[in-house]
Amino acid sequence: METIEMKLLSKDILHEYGFSENEMKTDAKKEVLTRDNFDIVFKDGNYYYSNLGIDYPLKDLSALRKFYKEVKNCELTSV
User: Fold this and answer.
1) Nearest 5°: CA angle at 18, between 16 and 24?
2) Strand partners, 58
3) What is the pLDDT of residues 56-76, one digit of tens each?
4) Model-level pTM?
5) Which distant-in-sequence residues (6+ apart) come within 8 Å of 34 by Cβ?
6) Torsion of CA 6, 68, 11, 31, to 10 degrees
């Protein structure tokens, strides 16, 4: 079993895992990073998974990997 270090989310970690800025959805109030139609929103100093207008807070890499697996039915791996 692989041990995942508890890392707080940051843009660098999201880039490491293949997320890139979605310029169409990014505006002055929020920055949107996308991978495989899975959007992570950075606003008010926090990261969220955003879907259908509902924001689910994501604090660390472990939470992101778990949520990604639930939504996409596959593991989130670094690129």
Assistant:
1) 125
2) 47
3) 999 999 999 999 999 999 999
4) 0.86
5) 19, 20, 21, 22, 25, 40
6) -140
